[in-house]
Request: fold
Amino acid sequence: MSTADRSTFVYVTYIRTTPERLWAALTDPQFVRQYWFDTTVECAWTKGSPWKLVGADGSVTDTGEILEIDPPRRMVIRWLNEWKPELKAEGPSRCTIELEPAGAAVKLTITHAIDRRESRFITAVSGGWPRILSNLKSLLETGAIATTSHPGH
Reply:
């Protein structure tokens, strides 16, 4: 499939922390809940393991599977939206999370892509990832989140 038939969102940020601490922040359910608007993650964090995001009310918002995992450097998640039928109908996407040491910081790159032209799902995550990752960066660097407004809810 050509890149013209794919929708992609890329977000890069630098966080003053270590790769190990950032990896833990991305994978620890209680830490995730602090910056991801009371959403938690359930996963064994091994290749092939199921992955899901669960909202504060217990509803499953997204599901998937770990396609690749190399702590504390990289993971790839097959990701399917579960809470909006029109987004679920687009099928699974791929979320690649990469951590790279950068002096006293870590370069965090999120690449979220779907094999679909003009994806409404990618438009949705384009609004969500910046808020989530701003909260993650603020929480790791200052101990407090940046915003409490969740997009799309």
